[in-house]
Every structure is written in structure tokens, then in C-alpha cells.
Amino acid sequence: LQERIFEPFFSTKKEGEGTGLGLYLCRKILQGHGGSLELKSAPGAGARFRLALPRAM
Fold first, then answer.
1. pTM, full prediction
2. How confident is the model over 11-33, as pLDDT tens digits?
């Protein structure tokens, strides 16, 4: 699951309940601005996303 979560159209929801584009688009937009979006997860501990953008000069 973790290795696929940022793929376009990947979703764990039932068909018709989402497009599977949200995390993919967020990551692409951040990368386009020199940033990143990472997933940190552990079984039974939930998931944590780390969003990073470069400091403006």
C-alpha cells in the first residue's frame, strides 16, 4: 500500500467514492515548487504525512 499511495488513480475507497488523484496531485504540485510529500507509517500507529517546501529567498 505505501509504495503505491502516490500513484495516480490509486485508492482504497469503494468504486465511485473518490478519484485516487488527491495525494498524487499534492505531491506533483509540491515537487513542481521544489518541495516534497512523504508518508511515514507504522502498523497500528496510523499515518503521518510530511510536507516540505523550500524557504522563499
1. 0.83
2. 989 988 989 999 999 999 999 99
Number of separate domains in the chain: 1
Give backbone dihedrals phi and psi of 25, rounded to 5 degrees, phi first. -65, -40
- Tell me if residue 15 falls in helix, strand or coil: coil
Q: What is the CATH number of the domain that holds 41?
A: 3.30.565.10
Longest CA–CA span in the chain (Å) reads 44
Q: List the domain range (segments joined by +) for residue 27.
A: 1-57
Which residues, in sequence order, are CB contacts of 51 under 8 Å at separation 6+?
A: 26, 30, 35, 36, 37
